[in-house]
Amino acid sequence: MAYTDHRTLRRALRREIAGTIGVLTDEHDFRAMRRYDSFVFDDHATYLKHVEAVLRTRALQGSHTTVALFDPEEYADWCAHHGLDPDHPVSRTRFTADRAATGPAVPYDGRPLTDLMNTLVDEAVRRATWEYATTLLARLGPCASCGEDLGHAAFARASRLVSRILDTAPPGHRHLVVSVSGPPESLVAVLHADDTDDGVHIDETEALEFTTVLAVGLATAGPGGLVMRTSTPGAPDRIHGWRIRSNGLLPLTAGEVFDAYCTDTETGEIIPPESNVDYCASPDLTDTDHGPDHHH
User: Fold this and answer.
1) Which residues contact 203 (CB under 8 A, 6 or more apart)?
2) In whole angstroms, what is the distance from residue 258 CA to residue 78 CA?
3) How many CB atoms lie within 10 A of CB 268?
4) Which is nearest to 77 in space by CA: 67, 91, 89, 90?
5) What percent of the residues of the chain are helix, what percent strand, and what percent coil, each to the nearest 5?
6) Cβ pair 59, 108 in contact under 8 A
7) What's the confidence (pLDDT) of residue 9?
8) Origin, by domain of life (predicted)?
9) How do 277-279 and 65-69 pair as beta strands?
10) 254 pLDDT higher than 80
11) The overall pTM is greater than 0.85
């Protein structure tokens, strides 16, 4: 009887343990792991089926599982740094736990694994974009004339502009996209804002990433742009847009917004406009407190 009670109690404790699994989301990463003898899978599709089966079983048992992105190159470097054998399951377990705490990870919520992996990859791209944009701002250094930190000044100006956009936007669900063209690569960030009884609700992480990318555009004078789509039940969606300039955002006319949305950026061909959408002239968001002029 005591033995049965112990098993019951331990089973209850096991349900209190949160788990983490690292997933190889694409064939390239999967092939890289096959060089390890302790990695027993030889087919990516079969591997993903087993991962999803494990996730479902743990969920049915009441266990919480976090899904992390497993990068074989980072794993090899991590093992070398910590003096661990990469061809050992315990090493993979330790790496996965570390990455779940410091890298892209999402909780398993019953969705199909393909959907969860898309979310995981999107999260990884978002994080990489923010880290790269932050590095670009840090490299700007101080202004040669006044000594002000140029990256910090650009971020402060971007924060004020985001606040002005949300303060002057029509009510509804707002979907904002900011893009800044390279080199060496383009940066894109998204921000969602919704009206609530307590005011406008935004995700703080999204807001930080969005503001950082906008700051890069302001600091480097683009080229880039910002568009906002506002959706309200029973009314056409409204689209506004701005060009990024070193001193702020230049509002687009209704015709310019239409051209931006209805022209294929790669071919230059006209794209049919969406139905139930108004392409609107954008408000002037002149920042009256834009700080010192760093182009002296």
Assistant:
1) 191, 192
2) 49
3) 7
4) 91
5) 45, 20, 35
6) yes
7) 74
8) Bacteria
9) unpaired
10) yes
11) no
Are the CB atoms for 210 and 199 separated by under 8 Å?
no
Cβ neighbors of 97 (< 8 A, separation 6 or more) are 20
**Reported confidence tier of residue 173, pLDDT bands at 50, 70, 90:** very high
Nearest CA to 124 out of 224, 228, 26 is that of 26
Structure tokens at 98: 């570390």
- With 0-12 / 13-18 / 19 or more C-beta atoms within 10 angstroms meaning exposed / middle / buried, residue 229 is middle
Question: Residue 234, Cβ neighbours under 10 Å: how many?
Answer: 4
pLDDT in tens, 30-45: 999 999 999 999 999 9
Q: Render pLDDT for 278-293 as a digit per residue (tens, 0 to 9).
A: 999 998 887 554 454 5
- Using CA atoms, how far apart are residues 86 and 236, in angstroms rounded to an integer? 55
Residue 20 carries which side chain, given as an amino acid letter? T
Cβ count within 10 A of residue 29 = 17
